[in-house]
Automatic annotation (TrEMBL):
Superkingdom in the source lineage: Bacteria
Protein name: TIR-like protein FxsC
A Pfam family the protein falls into: TIR_2
Secretion signal span: none
Region annotation (Disordered) ranges: 422-443
């Protein structure tokens, strides 16, 4: 039997809350409808058995589900995989519309974490009238986290369940055999030129197996459908600002964190022996982001290319590197730029006695290298990150905020034909003598 709903969500640090919501949602729908548990919902982590072909099973569920429930957040909008699920399900509605003359309203966006701006595909669907002002303003994740809002959470759960049951009964959406995820692209992401992104995303971690360009991974180690375009806030470039062991030998006694290459920097040894570049890329993959690597001497060119392609750039900085003239010069140039969408993160191991002994001097070195950025106290600047768990939390949070800013601050570009990029046209008043050439009247 076809599931009543398909749950679409962005994988990451919220998974425990997603699991709780899914369990509660299935139970409430069963209470109201009398359906068997296995006929109620589909969630990849809950509904795919060991040995199943993961992508085939997920595609089959998308082709059969009566409704589509999306846990919407800035991270969801930046996930190509989530966008493809939305687009594939939407193709079923479009076919129904063509054949029967009416468009089913069986997509239910749920405010998981509110963002500053919704994509048009989401904003045109009414989805916040669920009897809870706190839910409308803060999202369902907020209600789940705080015990004092459990009554409102239950109220929202009941409203959502009623809506899913009603939508499924009203339209009885037919199955669509042969649904093809590879033939759709996310409706949330700006269409961007792929030249700059392709150069940067093809820089694998040294010694690691590279993921093919445009093929993010999601769950169970299965590759997702290839992207038709590159770039956008679904791709993050990590800049590793750390010296080699040979360079650091003049400044430190303990060199266990370093190696012959900048990419060998492992700031959390002995707690975590994994290189920070591998750790960061693993976290990014968990957020359905593709990623690339660069060294500090590439930062300015990389930022220019990333700004053009609406990508993310994250600086991972070894505070000890600010004592080396070459690194301090490169990082000081970054400080002169206004980069409101680029997180700056400083791992600062609490188990490193040498860093602890020199902490006051290192803070001065850091401030002298980044006086502008540290003075403005931007939320994207995360310093003295003490351990691997804190680094994962801080990176996920910073990536989410950076994605939101890209959507809010950078112009959305789209193809006008070939490789030419144009801004979205702006409807203006007729030009008068002296008006600017774009037709918009200056205030």
């Amino acid at each position: 039997m076809a599931p009543l709903f398909f749950l679409s969500y962005a994988r990451g640090v919220d998974d425990s809350y997603v699991s709780r919501f899914y369990r509660d949602f299935v139970s409430e729908i069963r209470r109201q409808s009398g359906n068997r548990r296995e006929d109620v919902g589909f969630r990849d982590m809950n509904s795919i058995e060991t040995g199943d072909l993961w992508l085939d099973t997920l595609t089959e569920a998308l082709a059969q589900a009566k409704t589509f429930v999306a846990l919407c957040s800035p991270t969801y909008y930046a996930s190509e995989a989530c966008g493809q699920e939305w687009a594939a399900y939407q193709s079923r509605l479009d076919r129904y519309h063509r054949e029967r003359g009416r468009l089913p309203t069986t997509i239910l966006p749920v405010i998981w974490v509110p963002g500053p701006q919704q994509p048009e595909a989401v904003g045109q669907i009414q989805h916040d009238d669920l009897g809870s002002e706190t839910y409308s303003q803060e999202g369902l994740h907020f209600l789940l986290r705080l015990s004092k809002y459990q009554d409102e959470y239950q109220q929202v759960l009941i409203h959502l369940s009623r809506r899913v049951i009603a939508m499924a009964e009203q339209y009885d959406l037919p199955e669509e055999p042969g649904l093809d995820l590879s033939g759709v692209s996310s409706p949330f992401l700006p269409q961007v030129r792929d030249s700059a992104a392709a150069r940067m995303s093809s820089s694998p971690v040294p010694g690691a197996t590279a993921t093919p360009a445009g093929v993010p991974t999601r769950g169970f180690g299965t590759t997702w459908a290839p992207a038709t375009v590159r770039g956008g806030p679904r791709h993050v470039n990590f800049v590793i600002a750390a010296a080699t062991s040979a360079d650091m030998a003049l400044h430190r006694r303990d060199l266990q964190q370093y190696g012959p290459d900048s990419y060998d920097w492992s700031p959390y040894r002995p707690q975590l022996h994994q290189r920070i570049c591998v750790f960061a890329q693993t976290i990014a993959a968990g957020q359905d982001l593709t990623s690339g690597l660069a060294r500090a001497d590439e930062i300015e060119e990389l930022l220019d290319q990333a700004n053009e392609a609406n990508e993310l750039v994250v600086l991972l900085i070894d505070v000890w590197a600010t004592r080396l003239d070459a690194y301090r010069l490169q990082l000081s140039r970054y400080d002169l730029r206004n980069e409101p969408t680029s997180p700056m993160m400083v791992p600062w191991s609490s188990s490193d006695p040498e860093t602890f002994e020199n902490s006051e001097e290192l803070r001065v070195d850091l401030f002298q290298t980044f006086p502008r950025n540290l003075t403005r106290r931007d939320d994207l600047i995360r310093t003295e990150i003490a351990d691997p768990d804190a680094f994962q939390r801080e990176l996920v949070s910073a990536l989410t905020e950076a994605q939101s800013r890209v959507f809010r601050l950078r112009p959305v570009v789209q193809r006008a034909g070939g490789d030419v990029l144009t801004e979205r046209p702006v409807l203006g008043l007729p030009r008068a003598p002296g008006d600017p050439p774009d037709g918009r009247v200056q205030p």
